[in-house]
Known about the structure:
Layout: H1 7-16, H2 33-46, H3 59-62, H4 109-118, H5 127-145, H6 154-165, H7 173-178, H8 187-199, E1 214-216, H9 233-237, E2 245-247, H10 269-281, H11 287-298, H12 315-320
Bound molecules: heme C (2 copies).
One heme C binds near residues 196, 200 and 280.
Amino acid sequence: xxxxxxxxxxxxxxxxxxxxxxxxxxxxxxxxxxxxxxxxxxxxxxxxxxxxxxxxxxxxxxxxxxxxxxxxxxxxxxxxxxxxxxxxxxxxxxxxxxxxxxxxxxxxxxxxxxxxxxxxxxxxxxxxxxxxxxxxxxxxxxxxxxxxxxxxxxxxxxxxxxxxxxxxxxxxxxxxxxxxxxxxxxxxxxxxxxxxxxxxxxxxxxxxxxxxxxxxxxxxxxxxxxxxxxxxxxxxxxxxxxxxxxxxxxxxxxxxxxxxxxxxxxxxxxxxxxxxxxxxxxxxxxxxxxxxxxxxxxxxxxxxxxxxxxxxxxxxxxxxxxx
Length: 323
Ligand code: HEC
Ligand code: HEC
């Protein structure tokens, strides 16, 4: 008996697996001096096109804060007009995800950040070029952010970028609702949430409303043949059982981050919901159900964008004014 799992325990685990969680707004003033210096340096680096080999592209080129951390393109444009392999996901809620990239090939934000820096069709940089640039442009800030450490190093650059990204998630009306403010969502949005809980939280779960694990795109009905050029995790592992397996994206701010899916091939949320219903669930929704779901998805939009998300945020003034 000791070695069998009781059905009761299993039942509890299954109930727990569709849980949506609210988030708190990150507060930079709660950071200690070194953490704040890293966050602030990361903010500066995120907007610095000097980080790219040709000096023409910054992280923010493809993850523009005024566009909720995306670029609005099906596939991003990198250095010299090169086209990236996939659609750019938002950086706003990346900190809530358990793995990064559509195929989850990076585990942490730190590990993720060196990807775009050295990708030929994104920032086209070399490690020597990067270190050379930050030594000239950011040496003082590195000394404050990494006191007593030798540098600047690639690792320090990625730690700073990740420190900035961890300050980006932002609460929505949905978080207020989860925290017991029933009126934060309209009737239609609440109906959408009920449908969402019954159908979608097997995959889009946790505080990111997604981003917790891998799932097969086309779980119940194979994904359309003409949209299977990119086979997700299979491209990394070569294991046939990983074909069309992708990290489930976070749906926070999803109404703002189109076009959707890893290839940016879907241009309306209605179509995204229809594709999910057909291929992930082998069902269809009535028009009223679909509209309710879309209303709920729109309610996942952050109430505001934090001032430090933008390039012109003045850290100096913020510290002075106690913001
Ligand atoms: C040329 C456009 C471009 C630039 C520049 C760029 N990115 Fe991205 N970013 C992308 C694309 C495209 C993906 C998805 C790639 C994939 O999954 O294979 C991505 C993925 C990410 C992710 C993972 C998000 C998720 O939900 O999985 C993070 C975090 C991120 N980028 C941060 C950064 C940072 C930090 C920089 C600067 C060092 C940067 N990006 C520069 C286009 C860009
Ligand atoms: C079996 C798992 C699974 C279920 C169930 C599921 N999804 Fe998804 N969803 C995914 C995966 C995986 C992706 C990423 C697709 C890709 O790689 O392009 C995705 C992508 C999406 C996107 C596009 C997000 C973006 O940023 O491009 C939306 C919107 C979405 N799902 C909504 C829903 C809704 C609404 C439901 C319920 C009706 C649902 N999903 C059910 C796994 C699932």
